[in-house]
């Protein structure tokens, strides 16, 4: 079901988003070689709980952690654990905050230490693709306009867009309709309305867009072992244009 949010509800989601955005800002200086992915998860969980919020991912369909920490060829849903970050790793940290019932969802990519020009270019293209998609998230446009903007830019830069995992509606629960693919045809799909709140979260690969699943049924990896990058914001569709609810400083 698609729920249209009031200005008050969007403001509440923005307060939730500010908590999550602030944590991502802190992670810029926290993530470094030698840390385990579980240490990153614990850092995020402590910050969420200290803000009086709930780590919404914990318990979702049996998921045990406050974050997904996906490294290098892991596209999404990576389990935090004993893996020790090394120089040049690309890590994606994804978390969902529930603050007084208001949801926010944001994933951000971080380069550990010094990375190759290829990794840096992948990150720059993926982040730009996110904002190109956001530009299309306005009243009267269609879902396909978002995906088309992302796909045409990414493929024009020689990368690929993951198809199996997409954005979604959010609030009052974590995952809701509508589905927001990061590929598609302009002018096609559901029309966007004022009050919709969605995530836009392109996952961009250096090689094929196809993925394979680990035996645990959660972690998705690139089928060819190439790198994958992701950036995600929670967005409100407003009469004045798209409003980013997880905006970092």
UniProtKB/TrEMBL annotation:
Signal peptide: none
InterPro entries: Creatinase/aminopeptidase-like, Pept_M24, Pept_M24_MAP, Pept_M24A_MAP1
UniProt keyword annotations, A-Z: Aminopeptidase, Hydrolase, Metal-binding, Protease
GO BP annotation list: proteolysis
Gene Ontology annotations for the cellular component aspect, listed alphabetically: cytosol
Reaction(s) catalysed by this chain's protein: Release of N-terminal amino acids, preferentially methionine, from peptides and arylamides
UniProt-annotated binding residues for a divalent metal cation 2: 105, 168, 201, 232
Residues noted as binding substrate in the record, renumbered to the chain: 77, 175
Free-text comment on the cofactor: Binds 2 divalent metal cations per subunit. Has a high-affinity and a low affinity metal-binding site. The true nature of the physiological cofactor is under debate. The enzyme is active with cobalt, zinc, manganese or divalent iron ions. Most likely, methionine aminopeptidases function as mononuclear Fe(2+)-metalloproteases under physiological conditions, and the catalytically relevant metal-binding site has been assigned to the histidine-containing high-affinity site.
UniProt-annotated binding residues for a divalent metal cation 1: 94, 105, 232
EC number: 3.4.11.18
EC main group: hydrolase
Positions of the Peptidase M24 domain: 12-239
Cofactor annotation: Co(2+); Zn(2+); Mn(2+); Fe(2+)
Molecular function (Gene Ontology), one example: metal ion binding
SUBUNIT field: Monomer.
Protein family (similarity comment): Belongs to the peptidase M24A family. Methionine aminopeptidase type 1 subfamily.
HAMAP family registered for this protein in UniProt: MetAP_1
Summary of the function given for this chain in its UniProt record: Removes the N-terminal methionine from nascent proteins. The N-terminal methionine is often cleaved when the second residue in the primary sequence is small and uncharged (Met-Ala-, Cys, Gly, Pro, Ser, Thr, or Val). Requires deformylation of the N(alpha)-formylated initiator methionine before it can be hydrolyzed.
Record protein name field: Methionine aminopeptidase
Source organism: Trichococcus ilyis
Gene behind this protein: map
């Amino acid at each position: 079901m698609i729920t249209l949010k009031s200005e008050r509800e969007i403001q509440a989601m923005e307060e939730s988003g500010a908590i999550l955005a602030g944590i991502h800002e802190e992670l810029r200086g926290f993530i470094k070689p030698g840390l385990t992915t579980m240490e990153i998860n614990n850092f995020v969980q402590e910050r969420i709980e200290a803000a009086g919020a709930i780590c919404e991912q914990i318990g979702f369909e049996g998921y045990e952690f406050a974050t997904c920490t996906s490294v290098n060829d892991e596209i999404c849903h990576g389990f935090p654990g004993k893996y020790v970050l090394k120089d040049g790793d690309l890590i994606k940290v994804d978390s969902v905050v529930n603050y007084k019932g208001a949801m926010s969802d944001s994933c951000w990519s971080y380069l550990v230490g010094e990375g190759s020009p290829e990794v840096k270019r992948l990150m720059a293209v993926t982040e730009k693709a996110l904002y190109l998609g956001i530009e299309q998230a306005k009243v009267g446009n269609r879902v396909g306009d978002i995906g088309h903007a992302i796909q045409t830019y990414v493929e024009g830069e020689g990368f690929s867009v993951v198809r199996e995992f997409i954005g979604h509606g959010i609030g009052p629960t974590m995952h809701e309709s509508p589905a927001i693919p990061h590929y598609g045809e302009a002018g096609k799909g559901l029309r966007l309305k004022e009050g919709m709140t969605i995530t836009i979260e392109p996952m961009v690969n250096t090689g094929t867009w196809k993925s394979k699943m680990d035996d645990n049924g959660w972690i998705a990896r690139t089928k060819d072992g190439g790198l994958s990058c992701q950036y995600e914001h929670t967005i409100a569709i407003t009469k004045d244009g798209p409003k980013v609810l997880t905006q970092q400083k």
